[in-house]
Fold this protein.
Amino acid sequence: MAGIGPIRQDWEPVVIRKKAPTAAAKKDEKAVNAARRSGAEIETMKKYNAGTNKAASSGTSLNTKRLDDDTENLAHERVSSDLKKNLMQARLDKKMTQAQLAQMINEKPQVIQEYESGKAIPNQQIIGKLERALGTKLRGKK
């Protein structure tokens, strides 16, 4: 058994210490009172808005009036009636179903339904795909 020498005893002392107190333990009432009794210097300060919920509610009050005064009706642009009629006519001329057209342009059938019903938000990429698949111009002049 090469490489094994005489077994030696390690007589170095091993010191096990308690962990230093955490920040929460230092702020504990017992710890503060003990520090006062021992004559240690203690600093106390009150934090701004400590223990209140003013910071959370103050930001909304600035915008609340502006939102209440806002009377503008915001709505997304929808597909024009000309586009939906042109799309439906071109699809029927090619004798295709909505599902077939959707598969042809790699979209869901629901997208075609939304365009034909006028509920879709116009996407120029999808309209371009539809024009190429149907071989006709759907938007603008024919």
User: Anything to note?
Assistant: The first helix runs from residue 23 to 26. The helical segments are 23-26, 29-38, 54-69, 81-93, 98-104, 109-117, 124-134. The mean pLDDT is 83.
